[in-house]
Design a protein that fits this description.
Elements lengths: L3 H57 L5 H30 L14 H34 L1 H6 L3 H26 L10 H7 L8 H14 L2 H32 L4 H5 L1 H26 L3 H6 L6 H5 L2 H30 L2 H9 L18 H13 L4 H8 L1
Helix pairs in contact: 1-2, 1-13, 1-14, 2-3, 2-5, 2-13, 3-5, 3-8, 3-10, 8-10, 10-13
GO molecular function, one term: G protein-coupled receptor activity
Membrane topology: Multi-pass membrane protein
Subcellular location: Cell membrane
Length: 395
């Protein structure tokens, strides 16, 4: 029979050897997040704003079709809205002192918490919607190019996006009342929790761990992860299906010009699907980081080594860093690819900074006699007589 007290003492003694290193690692990871995250967010905001300016300029000049970029505009606007709201929260938290020794987030902050949770969840879903819309529109353009050009207008695409946003908001609040007892329960998401429990404001890591365990206990990550991940997974399956159908369609038409005409579009779609896969992985990472630490926070856990050691805490901070830095990096890469990989948009963007050439040409003065000039005009005009009149005269 095992001696539980002896085993517990052995575990504590074993953990104490690495506790200082683990605490230092946690502090370094959060220091890295606080240093890199604002830079990545500002860079993503600038690149997406640059993309919107390029698209608006090209559309107003008549060089870009609006319906081709509506989905990417939707994604860029959603990312920029998320950056602005998260940045406001980050700045507010940085300059605000804690009202309570245990809970670092200000007490009168319920509405901002709901806003942050709603923003991030809708950002996950809107990004998935945009990728799926790009895949579907590409398939429609390859399968029925004439109908895509004539019947599908930009106003129809915009109405579809507005309807999709209303549907996502309705789905979000329906899931809140059905699965979460009428309360937003997404603080188990490590990215969302990062903005509401600032590690750097706590005097000791123990205070931060108490706050973290309270959030993990009161906000189960399993239900919120299920609600958050189901729509992106459905969109992802639809996107993969569209990509397979496009590949099949182009394979059958590989001897025609349509294959060469849509090759660049398929290349962009493949890039978007790769980024879509990364986005789904980062979304799952934001929730998976809370699962290993649940045993650490559970006082009834039978796994004493996981309960007493700092390993789960280090894993949680690493998952959090990967999720939050990766998400802002995804925003940056998306805007960069959409601006500079698309040849038509790239040309339109660089033409905006070229000097405008004048339509007037400077010529030397005509020194001919007025009679010669009038005779030259008459002869020039006579050469421009339509052939129909000539035929009538000779018939």
């Amino acid at each position: 029979m095992r001696n539980n007290s002896t085993d517990s003492f052995y575990v504590v003694d074993k953990c104490d050897d690495n506790e200082i290193e683990s605490i230092e690692m946690v502090e370094q990871i959060f220091g890295f997040i606080n240093a890199v995250m604002p830079i990545m967010a500002i860079l993503a905001l600038i690149i997406n704003l640059n993309f919107l300016v390029a698209v608006i300029y090209g559309v107003r000049r008549g060089r870009l079709p609006l319906k081709r970029y509506v989905m990417t505009i939707n994604r860029s606007l959603a990312d920029m809205m998320t950056i602005c709201i998260a940045g406001t929260r980050y700045i507010t938290e940085y300059f605000t002192r804690c009202n309570n020794a245990h809970y670092c987030a200000p007490i009168d902050n319920t509405w901002f918490s709901n806003l942050m949770q709603t923003t991030f969840i809708l950002n996950y879903w809107s990004v998935s919607l945009s990728y799926t819309g790009i895949a579907f529109l590409t398939y429609y353009a390859v399968r029925s190019p004439l109908q895509y050009k004539v019947r599908l207008t930009s106003s129809k695409v915009i109405r579809i996006i507005l309807f999709s946003w209303l549907s996502m908001i309705f789905l979000l609040f329906t899931s809140v009342f059905l699965f979460q007892d009428g309360k937003l329960n997404y603080n188990g998401n490590s990215v969302i929790h990062l903005f509401f429990d600032d590690f750097s404001k706590n005097d000791h890591i123990g205070i931060w761990l108490v706050d973290l365990c309270v959030q993990i206990e009161n906000h189960s990550s399993y239900k919120s992860a299920m609600v958050t991940m189901i729509p992106p997974l459905i969109f992802y399956i639809i996107s993969i299906g569209c990509y397979c159908l496009i590949s099949q369609e182009l394979f059958y038409r590989r001897t025609t010009n349509i294959y060469k005409r849509h090759r660049s579009a398929v290349w962009r779609l493949g890039t978007h699907l790769l980024l879509f896969s990364v986005a789904c992985f980062l979304t799952a990472t934001a929730y998976y980081g809370s699962i290993p630490i649940s045993n650490f926070c559970d006082p009834n856990s039978k796994d004493e080594e996981r309960y007493l050691c700092m390993g789960p805490v280090v894993s949680y901070t690493m998952y959090t860093a990967a999720a939050v830095i990766g998400w802002f990096a995804r925003m940056t890469v998306d805007g960069f690819i959409d601006t500079y990989v698309d040849g038509v948009l790239r040309q339109s963007f660089f033409q905006a900074f070229r000097p405008v050439q004048s339509n007037f040409t400077v010529t030397t003065a005509d020194t001919r006699h007025p009679l010669e000039i009038s005779t030259h005009k008459v002869s020039t005009t006579s050469n421009m007589i339509p052939m129909a009149h000539v035929k009538r005269e000779f018939l």
